[in-house]
Design brief:
A hairpin with a 2-residue loop joins strand 16 (about 345-355) and strand 17 (about 355-360). With about 425 residues, the protein is of the alpha/beta class. Helix 3 (about 110-120) crosses helix 4 and helix 3 (about 110-120) packs parallel to helix 5 (about 155-175). The chain has helices at about 15-25, 75-90, 110-120, 135-140, 155-175, 180-195, 205-210, 245-250, 285-290, 315-325, 395-410, and strands spanning about 1-10, 30, 40-45, 50, 65-70, 75, 100, 105, 200, 215-220, 260-270, 270-275, 310-315, 315, 330-335, 345-355, 355-360, 375-380, 415-420, 425-430. The chain is globular. The protein has two domains: about 1-90 and about 205-430, Alpha-Beta Complex (Adenylosuccinate Synthetase, Chain A, domain 3); about 105-200, Orthogonal Bundle (Adenylosuccinate Synthetase, subunit A, domain 2), CATH 1.10.300. The longest helix has 18 residues, at about 155-175. The strands form five sheets. A ten-stranded mixed sheet has the order 9-7-5-2-10-1-11-15-19-20, sandwiched between helices. Strands 14, 16, 17 and 18 form a four-stranded mixed sheet that branches. The protein binds guanosine-5'-diphosphate, 6-O-phosphoryl inosine monophosphate and magnesium ion.
Length: about 425
């Protein structure tokens, strides 16, 4: 049995997609266990740049089976668009290659409208959601009123959709938003059902069988540890369990499946965040422009899903250590090290100060971060362009020292670093 979980160690956009793509060459199955099309995972293969929102990034490798697990919330319109886009880019999409859990939940246009209306009602205290209906869909799931993928197979699907949208319409009207066209949505879902039916499966059973027969399963996390509904910077979080343990419930695997699992935490060499919420190591003005980039490079820090400029800052070692603990991370992959080239000094937050106390471990989690001042250590920078380097021994000494500092504050080894978005721009870290 072999399971590897790829999880974001920060606030998302760490480069999970490209790391999943890297490991997918050795996996038979790649499965998403949480979230929906709020995710934006980029995989660069030569001239082609794939931006995946729902389908696991591992699908780019032709030998894999991609699974969308029960922990996901799936907008069928977005899914069909993504299937179409991948097919046009030459990726085979067939029921043999793509399996959708019958008990994943559906996102309807009403969830998206509710997301927008709720954000508007929050005013300046808004969460800064992606507007993809994620919160309202998980709310409906917890209220036990939502439509699931299995409903697409039901003979009375139009009636089920009608009832669901009529209830949502009452909520929309109470928020001052217009009601949606029930008949039109029911007709659209009937069409989605026809197209998606061949892909619907009992994925939990299929994954169990695959693990039993010795196949290698790669679980692809979406969002990041600090956006986890329970352990993130609540309420500025997403609505799902993003952490590695969420894999088990989100794919329908038993605890024993995790025995001996490799938990790979993907961590950017600095810190970014999209949307509202605390960010102790955030930087502004020139330093921010330097870390974010201007948008001329495809990897500059602008949201993959919404195009919003990402907030940027120095690597937060206290939060990284927290993520290592909550996920049980066994190895870190440090991405975008190349972006730090050319800086005179590189900072890393090793502790927080609160009143006259210095803290290296978060107590009561990360919800009260505004009360903390980061304590930075400054390390010498390096000038070399790292993009063409492939061997550990060719990295500048200062870059190696930075990686060692990350390992020390995180309390976990860095197994690889990436120095560009391309598949081969990876360096294995040596002892
Ligand atoms: P994800 O959501 O975690 O999959 O990350 P995103 O795809 O949203 O954002 C990561 C961005 O950084 C994408 O544009 C990637 O192509 C890019 N990227 C990933 N690794 C590297 C790297 O090592 N160097 C550079 N320059 N870009 C990278
Ligand atoms: P990937 O998988 C970065 C953020 C939103 C917002 C909060 C809640 O690409 O790393 P939601 O729409 O989920 O209700 O928004 O979560 N967020 C992400 N930030 N990367 C993501 O996904 C994100 N998915 C959601 O910006 O702050
Ligand atoms: Mg992303």
């Amino acid at each position: 049995m072999s399971l590897q979980i790829i999880v974001g160690a920060q606030w998302g956009d760490e480069g999970k997609g490209r790391i999943v793509d890297w490991f997918a060459s050795q996996a038979q199955i790649v499965a998403r266990y949480n979230g929906g099309d709020n995710a934006g995972h980029t995989v660069t293969v030569g001239e082609k740049v794939f931006k995946l929102h729902l389908i696991p990034s591992g699908i780019i490798h032709p030998h894999t089976v991609a699974v969308m697990g029960n922990g996901m919330v799936i907008n069928p319109r977005s899914l069909l668009d993504e299937m179409q886009a991948l097919e046009s880019a030459g990726v085979e999409i067939s029921p043999r290659r793509l399996r959708i859990s019958y008990c994943a939940h559906l996102i309807t246009p009403a969830h998206c409208a509710l997301d927008a209306a709720l954000e508007a009602a929050r005013g300046k205290d808004n969460i800064g959601t992606t507007g993809r209906g994620i919160g309202p869909a998980y709310t409906d799931k917890a209220a036990r009123t939502n439509l699931r993928v299995a409903d697409l197979l039901a003979p009375d699907l139009p009636e089920r959709v009608r009832q669901n949208i009529e209830t949502a319409n009452r909520s929309l009207l109470s928020l001052g938003a217009p009601a949606l066209d029930v008949v039109q949505i029911a007709a659209a879902f009937t069409d989605y059902a026809r197209q998606l039916a061949p892909f619907i499966a009992d994925t939990a059973l299929e994954l169990h069988t695959a693990l039993q027969s010795g196949q290698h399963l790669l679980a692809e996390g979406a969002q990041g540890s600090l956006l986890d509904i329970d352990h993130g910077t609540y309420p500025f979080v997403t609505s799902s369990s993003t952490l590695a343990p969420g894999t088990l419930v989100g794919l329908g695997l038993g605890l024993t499946a995790a025995h001996g699992a490799v938990i790979t935490g993907v961590c950017k060499a600095f810190q970014t965040r999209v949307g509202s919420g605390p960010f102790p190591t955030e930087v502004f003005e020139q330093t921010a422009e330097r870390l974010r980039g201007t948008g001329e490079n495809p990897w500059d820090e602008f949201g993959t899903t919404t195009g919003r400029p990402r907030r940027v800052g120095w690597l937060d070692g206290v939060l990284l250590r927290y993520a290592v603990r909550l996920n049980g991370i066994t190895e870190l992959v440090l991405t975008k090290l190349d972006v730090l080239s050319g800086l005179k000094t590189v900072s890393i937050c090793e502790a927080y100060r609160r009143e006259d106390k210095t803290l290296t471990e978060l107590v009561f989690g990360p919800s009260h971060l505004d009360a903390y001042q980061p304590v930075f250590t400054s390390l010498p920078g390096w000038n070399a362009d790292l993009g063409a380097i492939r061997r550990w021994r060719d990295l500048p000494e200062a870059a190696c020292a930075y990686i060692r500092a990350v390992e020390r504050v995180a309390g976990a080894p860095v197994s690889m670093v990436s120095v560009g978005p391309e598949r081969e721009q990876m360096i294995v870290v040596e002892a």
